[in-house]
Amino acid sequence: MSDLIVRVVASVVVACLFCFATFQSTGAMQQSGYKNGVFWRWLKRKDNLYFNRLWVWALCLALSVAVVSLCFSFLGVRWALALSVIPFFVICLFFLYADGKFALKVPTVRTGRLRRLFVVYLLLVAVLADVAIALLGFLSEKNGSELYALLAYVPFAVLPLTLPCLLCLANAITAPFENCRNRKFVCRAQKRLSATEITRIGVVGSYGKTSVKHILKSVLEEKYTVVETPSSYNTPIGIAKTITSDEFQNKQIFIAEMGARKAGDIRELCGIVQPDYAIFTGVCEQHVQTFGSIDGVWNEKKEILRCGAKKVVCGASLKPLIDKEFLDAETIAIADATAVENVCLGATKTSFTLALGGEKIQVETPLLGNVAVENMQLVATLALELGLTPEQIGAGLRKVSPIAHRLQLIESGGAYILDDGYNCNPRGADEGISALQRFSGRKCIVTPGIVECGILEERVNARLGERIAKAGLDKVILVGETLVGTVKDGYLQAGGDKDNLRVVKTLKEAQEVLKTWISTGDAVLFLNDLPDVY
Description:
UDP-N-acetylmuramoyl-L-alanine:D-glutamate ligase, 6-stranded mixed β-sheet, globular
C-alpha cells in the first residue's frame, strides 16, 4: 500500500511540474479559439521553437536519469534510482522557470474555461505518469537485469514530448461541456436582453467595427447613457458577457460589435441582439480564408440588412452591392460622400466639414486618415436618426479619443509611432501607409503581412509589398516567416529598394533594429502585430 501511495504522489508531483512548465501552451490553445487544428498548426510552424524546447527537456531528463543511476549503481538499484530523482526535479524546475520567462504576445487570460482545461490536462498527465511508473517498474521486475533496472525509468523522461497531445485530448474532452455551458449562458443573456427596453445597435463589417463602436459611443453619450461590448468582443460569448455585466444596468443604448468567421455567425448574433439599428462599414478580403471568396464574405455580412432593424447605415463602398440586391429597401441608408467637405488629412490630426440635417458642422479629431472621416460620417448619420442634433453630434465627434492599436499615434522621444497593431485587413493597411507618408521625417514600416485572406492571401500580400514600394519608405522591416516572402517579392518586383529592406524573425528583433535607426522626427508604422498562433 505504501508503494502505491508513493507512486500516486510522485505522479501528481511530476504532473504539476510538467503542466505548469508548459502553461504558456494553454495560452496558445486559448488564442486558437480552443480549436485543436489551429493549435496544431501553431505547433508545426517552422519558426516555433516549442517542440525544440520539449526535445531539449526530454533529452536532459533522460541523460540525467541515466548518468546518475549508473554513477551510483554501487549503492544498489533502489538508491541509484532515488538519487536520479534529484536532477530530474532540478531540470523540471528550470524549465518551469524558463516557461515563466517565455511571454506570449497576447497574454493568457485565466478564464474559467482555461482553468477547467488546465485541471483536465493536469489529471491526464498524472494518469499517464502513474501508468508509466507502474508499467516501467513491472517490466524492471520481470526483466531481472540490474542494468535494465538502473535504466528502467529513462523512458519516463520522454513524457514531455506527449504533452501537446495530452493538451489537445484535454481540450477534446472538455469541449462538449464548454459548448453546452456557453449555449446556456448565451441563452440566459438573450432572455435578460429581451426583458429590457434598451435600444440595440449592431456594428458589422470586414473592417472598422471597433473604431465605429468607439466613435458611436462618444457621440450618443451626448444624449443617452450607453454601454458597448468592450475591446474586440464580437462573439456570442463576448456579447453575453456584456449583457450580464454590472455595466449593462440602467443603460438606454447597447452597442454590439458583431464579428463573423463562418456562415451563420451574423444571423446568430442578430438573433441574440435583435438590433433596432445597425451600421455596416463595408467588406474586403478579410476572412476569405473561412468564407472562400469575397462573395462569401458579402453573403454573410449582408444578413444585417435582413435583421429587421429600423435603419441600417452603410458605407458608400457598399452601394453597388446593395443597389444590385436591395433596390426597394427603405431601411437602408448609404453614406453620402458629397456631405463631407474640406477634408484636411494631417500627420497628427484630421479635420473636415460635415453637412448634417441642413447644417454644417466643423470637426477636428486626433483620429487619422480617410477611414476616420468615413467612420465618423456613418456614426453621424445614425446619430441623427436617433434624435441627436447636429450640435450634439459635432460635440461628440470632437470628443473622440484615439483608439488603442488602431492607427493610434504615439509620440516617443521626438519620434512618431503609428500603432496599427490590431489592423488585419487590406483596406486598413492602405490607410496606415498613407498616414505614414504624411510625416515629414524618415519613415519606416514594420509588418508581418496580412492573414485570413485564404486563397487571396498571396495576392493581398504581394499587393501590400507593391504598396510599400510605391510609398518610397526609408526602412521596411518584415517580421516572421508566415507571409513575409510574398510581401518581399511584391516589394522588390514593384521596384522597392532592397537596401532599405530587412527581414527578421520576431517583433523583438525588429525593435532592436529600430533602436539603431530611429531618430528625432522619424515615423514608424507598426502594421498588424499577429497573435502568437499565426
